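Journal club prep — side note

Before the paper discussion, L.F. wants everyone to see what a predicted structure for a comparable chain looks like in token form. Sequence:
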Amino acid sequence: AFAITQLYSGAQTITDLPPAMTFFGNTVAIGSAAFNYGTVFMLLMYAFMWWGLRDTQPGRHVYAVGNNPEATRLTGIATDRVLLGVYVLAGLFYGIAALLSVARTGVGDPNAGQTENLDAITAVVLGGTSLFGGRGIILGSLLGAVIVGVFRNGLTLMGVSSVYQVLITGVLVILAVATDQLSRKGAR
């Protein structure tokens, strides 16, 4: 996909995007505060997914498959369908995240988002979601995303090179996964 993006754009940043693509980058004033439409939309998505995973049968199935796919299959839940649904939703959310990124910057940069996957994994793991499945909450992931965002901004303001930012973020992921593994062993 990265190579196709580079070929399509000629490895050049695309400017003069249509207003529909930059809509979520606009702001709305609520009282004396200004909020970005993209931020409001993201919070609504978090709230919807929090409700969906916590209070619906498909949401509980997602946790069950993540915890123990074989036991879930033996109870009669179609684990393949659950996994397909999770992957389809993940693809939809990746597309929405890309649209929000384009709206925020106002340009289509084929090199943008190179380390976003590392930031996303870091946010989810710091938020308490296990990479090994079955544990985690949406609000924890939101908190993890805020932590990663503040951390990245702080490193940028301190003048830390982007290469070292990626290195530090990678170390955070390793520490968070190691902590998750130790807590899993302790629970057994």
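L.F.'s comment for the group: DSSP finds nine helices and two strands in the chain. Keep this in mind when we get to the figures.
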